Every structure is written in structure tokens, then in C-alpha cells.
Amino acid sequence: MGRRVALKLSGEAFADPKFGYGIDPETVRQVAGELAEARRAGHEIAIVVGGGNIFRGLSSAAAGMDRSNADYMGMLATVINALALRDALESEGCPTRVQTALRIEQVAEPYIRLRAIRHLEKGRALILAGGTGNPFFSTDTTVALRAAEIGAEIVLKATKVDGIYDEDPVSNPDAHLFDDLTYMDVLGKGLRVMDSTAITMCMENDLPIRVFNISVPGNIVKAVAGEVVGTLVR
């Protein structure tokens, strides 16, 4: 049997690399190709998608908006990304289901925990959209929550850098990359890999977190299979 994992894909994973927003079909196809390969290897994959490439509640575009309203707009953006990823996965021959915390029956199933587990057991890729269905909660918290609910072995967070650094590697080329950290290291050092609610939830449920670079071809397959890439938090 393969592993059951919960993978967090931010909106960046869907965006045009040059502009950083919108949905780039080629980028989505590359991600879908690796996910399909990992599923064919027998792994069970639940994918929590973000929506920052379309709309982010905490952004200049949302300035002056009611926070709850802005967060609901961000949740709807995740549904758009989920449908784009489903289309790409099914083009790869990978049976896929989308579940959302927001009720939009015309395009996706409502999130039901036991049904989600059943989809995974049947070998389907599972895309989870709409966050938790509540404002003020990030998609980082969503992936920690869903991972605990479905009994995932690990939370995988795909980013645009090689793992967790002590400083921003973009602004400081000498920033140190960590291979291994504890949950308390992340919280105590204020490392901004996931919000503190998500880290605490993973710690309380004994869920390790692996942070890796999605831009490197093959990294999704390696991370899902349990190979050493990026940084492990445990």
C-alpha cells in the first residue's frame, strides 16, 4: 500500500511563473502530471488548494473590505483552481473528485469526511476547496484540519523555495536552509512557513510536515513517496 498524504498547493502553483497571478494551463498540467504519477504508484492524495493567484483576503485588493466578505471571495477563488486542477488530472487519466466546504452542488460535492476517505480508498485523487468554509482561517489551517480528519500520514506543503530558511532566501542569499525542525522550533523562531494555528494543530495530532520546492521537476512525486526533499517538521 502507498501512503495517504495531504498536500497543500498554494495559488502560486497555478499561476503564470512570469506574472504570478491567473491560471497558466502549462503550469497546471505539469503539476497534474506529477500528481497522476504519484497516484499511479499507489499513493492516496488529498490536495488542499489555495486561491491567492486569483484573490487573497489579506491583500491590497481587499483593502477596506469587510474581512469576512474578503475571505469568502478567497474561498470562491480556491474553487476555480480546484476545477482547473480536476480538468488537468482527468486529462492525465487520473479519476478525481472535488469537495468543497462551500455548498456549490452544481460544480462540486460538499465536503463529507467519510465520503472523502472513501474516494481515497477507491484510488481517486481528492481536491479540497473552499478552505474550512469559515472566514479568518487560512488554507494552511485547512490542510492541517483535513489531514487529521482523513488520517493522513503527513502534511506536504509545496512552495517556491527549497524548504524552511532562517531568513527570506530571496532577500538574503546567505539564508540557512534547515533540514529538520521541531514544531516548537518553528513557533519559537517565528518561521513563517505556516500560520501558528496550522503548526499547533499538526503538533497536537502528531502530523509531520514536509516543506519542499514545487518548481523542481519530480519533487511532488518524491515528497508523496516519502523521499527526503526540503525540510521536515516533526
Description:
This protein is α/β, with parallel strands linked by helices and 234 residues long. The relative contact order is 0.16. The chain is globular, with a radius of gyration of 17 Å. A nine-stranded mixed β-sheet has the order 4-3-5-2-1-6-10-11-9, with helices on both faces. The chain has a two-stranded antiparallel sheet with strand order 7-8. The protein has one domain: 3-Layer(aba) Sandwich (Carbamate kinase).
What secondary-structure arrangement, pairings included, does this model have?
Layout: E1 4-9, H1 25-40, E2 44-49, H2 67-91, E3 96-100, E4 109-110, H3 113-121, E5 125-129, H4 139-150, E6 154-159, E7 164-165, E8 177-178, E9 180-181, H5 183-189, H6 196-204, E10 209-213, H7 219-225, E11 231-233
Parallel strand pairs: 1-2, 1-6, 2-5, 3-4, 3-5, 6-10, 9-11
Antiparallel strand pairs: 7-8, 10-11
Helix pairs in contact: 1-2, 1-7, 4-6
Relevant terms:
globular; nine-stranded mixed beta sheet; two-stranded antiparallel sheet; 234 residues; 7 helices; alpha/beta; Carbamate kinase
